[in-house]
Here is the input.
Amino acid sequence: MEAGAGGRARAVWHVTVEADRAYYDRVVAEGGPDATALDFPPFCPPRRFDLVGPQVTIGRRSRSRGIFPTVDLVGPPEDPGVSHSHALLVPTSDGWSVVDLASTNGTTVNDDPEPLRPNTPRPLTDGDRIHVGAWTTITLHRTA
Here is the structure.
């Protein structure tokens, strides 16, 4: 934990990114875009990203387009359903919110099948799971 204003302890947040077989199976069962053409990756080690700054971008890097997201989901294996500028995490007074940036395939949270409305913040709590692309799950963690 870090010290905040007035010496109070401030929570430290990070996300883990994993290939999620259960989410992938739901995408395929729902007949998502190009679902039958996608194979679940045989190996995808979990990755960790610390959440710092006034916003954290989620997407896939594109040097030619000048896109360098904080949570860079470029592979391997690369989830083709993740947009280059897919979503944004913004800090709130007691945590974080996720905002879908009008991504091609949408963003969902936890087990809600309804995608988030683009450009509308959705508050998150410790342990919430953000689903993007065909198999990528981003889990929010708070270190108290």
